[in-house]
């Protein structure tokens, strides 16, 4: 908790800024205190390792933040990961701090050396564990997403002289689509869809909207559901990122560890992207352990919160998972 406090005192830390550099320097100092071999790679990711060992099992996360961030996103995975690696001291274990995660995972995408397995502990950033009364959760997959737009053409006209009957109001059609998108996503388990931007043309208070462009963000836990969701939403010019399933052996080690620390074993998909998804896509068997988010699950907000008890439990579960993975017991 003191280390989280020290990181929070550095303020906002955008990727590759002097503030992120300062956070990495702090973490490098803790790694040296823990007796780890410290190195920095070409993407300026920071890695602390226990020397030796034939099987490289890494944990970690990121220390960059969004503007006006909370104090747990990323930092918790680094601080708890370092604690677990220091306690175990087993050859082959490492803790990695990836650069610039929030703006698109530049660090993990640029990571050249890949471990044999990767486990990331992270605050959930949502309300699922809170609502299920579970302190910990094992991530099944990191959702894929399709982003694009949907355009509605109507006929612009005088707001006063055009009768209601026969109007071609593009915004009315777009409004119906927003409601339909909610129904479509609600009907697919684990799927979400969001319209976040509305552009209305010509945009006059006394003009019937002639053209409306909506932004659409659609996410689902696996490729099949993402296909169904994207097709039903008729997204134009879709840009797609595939879902990243977590590795079964890492999930098994996590489930065993969660049960061993006496917590209920709950599995859930991650609606947010993470470095673990980048590593999974690169072929590294990866897994994630979520820690309950309090305050309704709020994240990317200073009100983001996890309890000391939940963090202690998560660190114990991470330690057990890393031990099993590095000794190759799964
Ligand atoms: Zn994060």
Entry keywords:
330 residues, alpha+beta, nine-stranded mixed beta sheet, 10 helices, elongated, binds zinc ion
- Overall form: elongated
Order of helices and strands: HHEEEHEHEHEEEHEEEEHEEHEHEH
Number of strands: 16
What molecules are bound to this protein? Answer: zinc ion
Q: What is the percentage of strand-forming residues?
A: 25-35%
Weakly predicted, low-confidence segments: none
Please describe the biggest sheet, giving its number of strands, its sense, and whether it closes into a barrel: 9 strands, mixed
Description:
The protein has 330 residues and is of the alpha+beta class. It is built from ten helices and 16 strands. The chain has helices at 2-8, 18-33, 75-88, 106-109, 128-132, 170-186, 223-233, 248-260, 275-281, 308-326; strands at 37-40, 46-49, 57-62, 93-98, 117-123, 136-142, 144-153, 157-158, 192-194, 198-201, 207-208, 211-220, 236-241, 244-245, 267-270, 286-291. Strands 1, 2, 3, 4, 5, 6, 14, 15 and 16 form a nine-stranded mixed beta sheet that branches. A hairpin with a 5-residue loop joins strand 1 (37-40) and strand 2. Helix 3 (75-88) crosses helix 10 and helix 8 crosses helix 10 (308-326). The longest helix has 19 residues, at 308-326. It is elongated. The two termini are 31 Å apart. The relative contact order is 0.18. Residues 62, 73-74, 101, 122 line the site of zinc ion (ZN).
Layout of helices and strands, plus pairs?
Layout lengths: L1 H7 L9 H16 L3 E4 L5 E4 L7 E6 L12 H14 L4 E6 L7 H4 L7 E7 L4 H5 L3 E7 L1 E10 L3 E2 L11 H17 L5 E3 L3 E4 L5 E2 L2 E10 L2 H11 L2 E6 L2 E2 L2 H13 L6 E4 L4 H7 L4 E6 L16 H19 L4
Parallel strand pairs: 3-4, 3-5, 5-16, 6-15
Antiparallel strand pairs: 1-2, 2-4, 6-14, 6-16, 7-12, 7-13, 8-11, 9-12, 10-12
Helix pairs in contact: 3-10, 8-10
Zinc ion (ZN) binds next to loops.
């Amino acid at each position: 908790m003191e280390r989280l406090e020290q990181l929070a005192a550095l303020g906002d830390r955008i990727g590759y800024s002097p503030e992120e550099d300062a956070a990495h320097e702090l973490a490098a100092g803790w790694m040296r205190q823990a007796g780890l071999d410290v190195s920095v790679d070409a993407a300026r990711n920071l890695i602390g390792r226990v020397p030796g060992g034939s099987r490289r099992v890494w944990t970690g996360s990121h220390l960059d933040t969004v503007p006006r961030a909370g104090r747990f996103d990323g930092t918790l995975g680094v601080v708890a990961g370092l604690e677990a690696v220091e306690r175990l001291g087993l050859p082959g274990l490492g803790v990695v701090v990836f650069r610039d995660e929030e703006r698109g995972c530049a660090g993990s995408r640029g990571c050249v050396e890949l471990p044999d397995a990767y486990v990331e502990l992270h605050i959930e950033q949502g309300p699922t564990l809170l609502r299920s009364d579970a302190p910990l959760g094992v991530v099944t997959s990191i959702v894929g997403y399709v982003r694009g737009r949907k355009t509605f053409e109507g006929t612009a006209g005088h707001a006063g002289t055009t009768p209601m009957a026969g109007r071609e109001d593009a915004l009315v059609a777009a409004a119906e689509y927003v409601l339909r998108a909610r129904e479509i996503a609600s009907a697919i388990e684990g799927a979400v869809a969001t319209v976040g931007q509305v552009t209305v043309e010509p945009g006059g208070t006394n003009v019937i909207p002639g053209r409306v462009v909506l932004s659409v963000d659609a996410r689902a836990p696996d490729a099949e559901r993402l296909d169904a969701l994207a097709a039903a939403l008729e997204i134009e010019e879709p840009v797609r990122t595939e879902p990243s399933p977590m590795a079964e052996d890492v999930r098994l080690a996590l489930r065993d560890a969660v049960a061993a620390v006496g917590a209920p074993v709950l599995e859930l998909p991650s609606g947010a992207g993470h470095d673990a998804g980048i590593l999974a896509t690169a072929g590294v068997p990866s897994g994630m352990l979520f820690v309950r988010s309090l305050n309704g699950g709020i994240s990317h907000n200073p009100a983001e919160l996890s309890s000391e008890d939940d963090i202690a439990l998560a660190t114990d579960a991470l330690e057990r998972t890393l031990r099993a993975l590095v000794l190759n017991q799964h």
